[in-house]
# Entry
Amino acid sequence: MDADAREQRDRLRQERAFEDYWKLGTKRSVEALFRQYVAQAREQGRDTVPTLHKPDLTRWRRDYGWDERVSKRVQQQLDDDRERYEAIRKEALDQLHGLIPQALQALGEILQDRTNNATRLRAVDAVLARANLEQSPQEAAPQAPQLPQRPPENASEEEKLRWFQARQQMLKENK
# Structure
């Protein structure tokens, strides 16, 4: 076997060993990989493992930069997970902001129902305070007009209703 063929064979064995090393997860070490290969060779035969020579594994780890490759893969997985999480988070926020007009309409109906004042005030407070949803991202832009000041808790029902209607009107006009 010539040197190039030997080097190619060594490289293929090393790549397989690296993938097995990677699969060991947080318990990854040359020693753990070596023990795995010894057990596998006993059960399935010597030809099923890249090597039973521990110094080969140590050399491959060093020469082919296994630890750096593992670090890069872990970082890539973290980056991919972070991107997926951010996409899911953005979609959820977009959906949530899409519900604001419906929530405002429901609030309007609650505020116009004169039978339960305590429920009306709690509904307004809960919806507007939840996740600071008083403004959608477009409304929060610097050029957005100032929304009317919320009336104090002891304000009359008419004042609260006027405030809510003015707020709704401004939100509609500024879409």
The chain is about 70% helix and 0% strand. The radius of gyration is 32 Å. Residues 99-173 form one domain. Confidence is low (pLDDT under 50) at residues 135-141.
